[in-house]
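Methods — Computational structure assignment.
A single polypeptide chain was analysed. Its primary sequence is given first, followed by the predicted tertiary structure written as C-alpha cells.
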Amino acid sequence: MTQSGEISFELPFAKFHAAGNDFIVVPENDIRKLLEHARGVLGEMSPEDTAPNRFLLLRSSMLARQICDRHTGIGADGLILLREPSGRRHLGKIRIRNSDGSEAEMSGNGIRCAAAYILDSARQRLESKPGNKQAQRVSRLRELRIETPAGVKSLQMLEADKGHWVFRVAMGEPILQAKKIPFKASTGHSPVIGFPLETSRGILKVTVTSMGNPHCTVPVSDFDAFDWADLGREIEASELFPKRTNVEFVRVISRNEIEVRFWERGVGKTQSSGTGSCAAVVACVLNGLTSRKVRVQTLAGALDVAWPEGKEVTLTGPVELIARGTYYFSNRRDR
C-alpha cells in the first residue's frame, strides 16, 4: 500500500450535481477503514493527531482538497462524507467538506445529492440482490431524514427516474440574530438589514443571515458592471464574519423571481447554491422586495424557494447522477 510516510488506496465514489453545484459522495466508513490500515506509516504525526477521530478529520480535509481538484482530482465544489445515523428513523448522517478542505455546516444542494446517493445505492443493491429487505424499504421511501451539523433535515422526493431526482428540502428557519450567525455588527441590531459594509467598492448596504451557515446578501442591478467574484472573495474574508461568509449578489426580476450569483465560502464562484438561494430570498423578503415564494435563477438553472410567514424555508430543485467509479488516493499529491 505504501512506502515510508506515503499513503495510497482505492476509494469508491459517486458524483452528483444539483443545479450545477457538484459534489462527490463517499461512505465515511470506507475512508475510516482504509486510513486505519495506513496509520502505521505516519509515525511523524503526534499521538493526538493519530487518534481515530482526529486522524479522520485531518485526512478528510486532505482528501477533499485532492479529490475536488479539477485538474488532478475528480473535480467538485465539495466532498460529502456519509455515515450511519444516530437516530433510528434517519437514513444517514453527513459531513460536508468544501473544496479547500474546510467544513461546511450545511448545503441545500449537497444534502439533495446525499439523498440521491442513498436512494441510488438502494437501487443498486436491489439489482444485485432483489431480496434485500433494507434496500427494498429505502427504495420505497418518499421522505428522507438526514442528520447534518446544522440539525436533522427532512427531504421529500417529488420526482425520480434513473439518475435523476427532484427533492423539496425543509431547510429550517433562518437565523437572524447577529450573534448566532455569527456577525460582529457594530449596531447590534437584528435582523441585520441594510448594514453599511465597507468594501473596496465603497459602502454597500447588505443583509446578513444564516441558513445554518453565514450569508451576506448584496443587491445589484447589473452583474456585468463590476467583478462580483472579486468582491465576493473580499467580503468572504471580512473581519466582521468570524467564520467567514458565503456571499450572494441578487438582482430582483419581479416579486416572484430573482437572479443570483454565488460566491461560496471555501469554494469560490459556483453555478448555484442551495443555502445561498434560501438566504437570498430571505433577504429579499426582509427588505420587502419579493413575495415569500420565489423562483431563483442561477447560472445552472432554476431553484424554487418558499418562506411562509412564521414557518421554515423550503428549497426545491433537481439532482443528477454524473458518475460512479474509483478514486486513487495518494498523499504525495498534497505535498
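Note: The helical segments are 28-38, 52-67, 108-128, 133-139, 228-236, 274-286.
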